[in-house]
């Protein structure tokens, strides 16, 4: 926390040239991948961006959780609904 504001930062790195290592079947969904998508949707990111995560294999994250917190000011949809 800095100056009363909470900042969110997320980095997804895409490595080019790894197409040959991709599995032919889509990987099983993990809790990490599910929560990451939920977080991005809650922030109001474009669905096309969220769906692009389907190109990534999150199977190695099966033993990890995705812990997040979002302030109400960061939630455009929630803030709009609360005012309605």
TrEMBL record:
GO terms for molecular function: phosphoric diester hydrolase activity. GO terms for biological process: DNA repair. One of its GO terms (cellular component) is nucleus. InterPro entries: Tdp1 (IPR010347). This is Uncharacterized protein. The lineage of its organism: Eukaryota, Fungi, Dikarya, Ascomycota, Pezizomycotina.
């Amino acid at each position: 926390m800095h100056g009363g504001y909470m900042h969110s930062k997320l980095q997804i790195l895409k490595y080019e040239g790894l197409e040959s290592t991709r599995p032919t079947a889509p990987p099983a969904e993990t809790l990490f991948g599910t929560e990451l998508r939920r977080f991005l949707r809650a922030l109001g990111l474009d669905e096309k961006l969220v769906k692009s995560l389907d190109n990534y294999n999150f199977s190695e994250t099966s033993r990890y959780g995705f812990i997040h917190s979002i302030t109400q000011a960061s939630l455009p949809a929630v803030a709009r609904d609360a005012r309605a």
